[in-house]
Amino acid sequence: MADLQAVVFDFDGLVIDTEWCEYVTAAEQFRAHGTELNLELWKTFIGSLEHPHWTDILEEQLGRPVDRDVIVPARRRAHAECTAGLEPLPGVVTLRDAVVAAGLPVAIASSSPDDWVTGHLAEQGLLDRFPVRATGDEVHRTKPDPAVYLLACERLGVDPSATVAIEDSVNGVAAAKAAGMAAVAVPGSLTRGMDFSHADLEVGSCLELSPDVLRGLVE
């Protein structure tokens, strides 16, 4: 039986619920143009950058070009305002600290770019808690491709098969499993109710997790 060697956390929707802000600020631009951004379609994008840009979808629905030089910065400003008041999701910091106290290293593996992840971690005072990070701008493809998880495990110096990933998205769980890791699904505000049958465990929040629970997934 393997011993648990490390725990790797997703970021968006798992550490901080930026996913909701991603959707609502894009949806605002769709409504301003007289159309709607389909939530079910958007949910399939969560956890990955391997999808069309929201402006491409908007133009396709409208059948005409939009002024990206205006609407992209406007959406970016709205998104910054939306995320400014966010706090870490329940149990995440406590779980991270318990894992480290148990003598296990942790990392973040995110499809988002490094400046996005480090910026939000710094705002929350969590940058020192996650010194090892692997991000989407460092790999050839993002989740559901396993590359970012394999990079995180490489940087930790651990065997993926003895490592647990904690995820909020279907794409993220698929990436972790493709990397050979055990995967815990912690659905977020947009992914709750989605099919996480490919995860090794699904819980309501990180408050339900502990080093012992995670250790049981690799033994």
Explain what you see.
It is a single chain. With 219 residues, this protein is α/β, with parallel strands linked by helices. The chain has two domains: 6-17 and 87-218, 3-Layer(aba) Sandwich (Rossmann fold), CATH 3.40.50; 19-84. It contains nine helices and six strands. The chain has a six-stranded parallel beta sheet. Helix 1 (18-32) packs antiparallel against helix 4 (68-84). The longest helix is centred in the middle third of the chain and has 17 residues, at 68-84. The N and C termini lie close together (5 Å). The model has no long low-confidence stretch (mean pLDDT 94).
Brief overview:
With 219 residues, the protein is α/β, with parallel strands linked by helices. 43% of the residues lie in helices and 11% in strands.
The computed structural class is alpha/beta
List low-pLDDT spans.
Answer: none
What is the domain tally?
2
User: How many distinct helices?
Assistant: 9
Main sheet strand line-up: 3-2-1-4-5-6
Give the ordered list of helices and strands. EHHHHHEHEHEHEEH
- Measured by DSSP, the beta-strand proportion falls in 5-15%
Report the end-to-end length measured between terminal Cα atoms. 5 Å
Q: Give average pLDDT, whole number.
A: 94
| Total beta strand runs | 6
CATH homologous superfamily caption of the largest domain: HAD superfamily/HAD-like
Helix proportion range: 40-55%
Question: How would the global form be characterised?
Answer: elongated
